[in-house]
Amino acid sequence: MDGFRWLYNLAKALIAFHLFVSPATAAPQIHTSTYPRQLQGQDNDTNFEVLPFIKTFAAVGDSYSVGIGAGKRLEGLGDWYCSRYDHSYPYLINGDGRLGNDKDREFKFLSCSGATIPDITETQLGALEDGSQQVITISGGGNDAGFAHVLNGCIYQWTYGTQKTCDKNIQQASDTLNSAQFSESIDNLISLAKKKLSPDGHIYYTGYQQFFATDDRQCDKVSWSWLLGPDKEYLTLENRQKLNSLVNLTNSKIEAAVNRAADSVDFVSVDKSYGEAHGRFCEAEYPEPEPDRPGLLLYESDTEDPKSKYARFANILQPEATGSDLVMADTFEGQIEALYQSYLAQQPNATSHPKIGLPPGSLINMTTNIKFSLPSNLATTVTVSRKSASHSNDTIAKNVTQPTNSADFVEILQHFNATTDQKNRLYLSAFLPDCLKRIFHPRPRGHQMMADAVIYHMTVRNANKLKEPVSTENVPVRT
Question: Which residues form the signal peptide (predicted)?
């Protein structure tokens, strides 16, 4: 009877989500498809249990896994400084009703913004016991290729550059991705992750999504550059194609490594879904800038999430969104912050900027002590000292003073449940509001799409294991 009940639930899942998938094989290659509609949180039909036997789940990876800026920032051990959010796809997967009650499951959210493949391998997977995890999700590779540098050189130009700078950064990223070392690092990552799996465990390595639509040239005259002068970059068709090609190259290297690993790992992509949902930048029917359109699946610099669900990011002029913060220097936010501080160093009179809209005098002199304001629920203010950040030629700050002997600094880290590893890291004082530190990352709906796709892979795998029939028509991707 239990077998028939499970089959009934599976059939209900497949029908409810209008799925689309290639015919199942022992290791199915699944290409997702979407039918755009407004996402209103979890649908009631997802609350039946299809995978309640999953009792251990670990998420490792970079800022695409932590869900930077999507929803509410978590405040558990290590969460704050790794920028983990409650609408990240791992968090959504763990809380999804199809996996049963999350209180019955041990969820280890180890992903951290800015993580490279060595970080994931050595620090994050190193925190897991061998043979302990039924599910591991992985997102990684973008930071190894210098994602922040490409955005700086080709889109925002916080440090001075020309088209040659953009092309150079893209070439350097391509060289990294095409290197034997990069492929070997992914192989090593997957190999180590396999050791962490329980006998019935499985890995789901998630890909990245192309940023731009490339159907026409309506974006050719649009610029998101902060550069003042004739050398600013534009979102030309050629540049959009180059950046998309980097994403495709990254995904191809990841998928190739997954195929080499053969068993116990799937590559999961919703890139096709982003295109079918018209969720990328520069869609023909949405002239840029259009940062708040409902169907946009990636963050622009001025994107505001709905106040009802994501009030923290509703207005970049809110005090909680513009107060100074501490960010680890080697996270994605830290790299963006350092580049922005380079911009300030090159523009000494820039006390305000139209991209931020901060009133004159809001930016603190970078050569003085930094006044760090804790959130409103912590009624105290402390001061953190550090050296002035001096940058040139697109170089991330490496001369940041780490005030490890400051009692005030330690108090800040303790307030936010910093781990021992985090207490030993380099920090920057951040002035950019959160809405500018999550650029080019998925919005909550984008994370929901990835969560649904991963769960579908889980469902297909379990059906194959039980030798049950699987529909060839559907995929659980919602927008």
Answer: 1-26
